[in-house]
What we know:
This protein is an alpha/beta fold.
Amino acid sequence: MNELDKIFSQSKDSDTFASGYLSYLNLVLGGFNIKSISAFIKILIEARERDTQIFFMGNGGSAATASHFANDLAIGTRSWSKPFRAMSLTDNQAILTAISNDDGYENIFVQQLRSLMKKGDAVVAISASGNSINLVKAVEFANNIGGTTVGITSFDGGQLQQVAKLAVHVPANKGEYGPAEDAHMVLNHLIGAYLTRLVAREK
């Protein structure tokens, strides 16, 4: 039984489930390694300084997180003269369906990187399980051409935690996608809040 099932089984109503869920989420958030978050922020700042691209990618809920990350960096920071050149590889339906149809879903990200990525760009893969083959293939490709790779993971980290040059991991029990993806969004907003203020201080 995972923690959410346990909380539900012990809940009398939605109030007690909500309280239990939030308490557990606090425990999950406490599992972040602050040094890895700082290292991730440094990668993003260095990409901005070099004027290189930052590519985000993920599947399902993590695809939405990838889009949110790209939005908050590229637009939310309001850094127009020296922007974060961030984009999500999950957002173009024509490209995603073309690659899926012609080359297989496992290639939807690596094929885009073959067209768009240059040496020195950053690639950020987001996955609760860390075992999505399309993300692992894309990170391996990025490593091979001299990219900086970051894996944002949960559960046990999976393959992604092993292949990414930097792992930003938050532990949650296997299958607990809600708390894992909640934590990833908190990470997004934490980083966005910091970088927005850092940029504002430059003006």
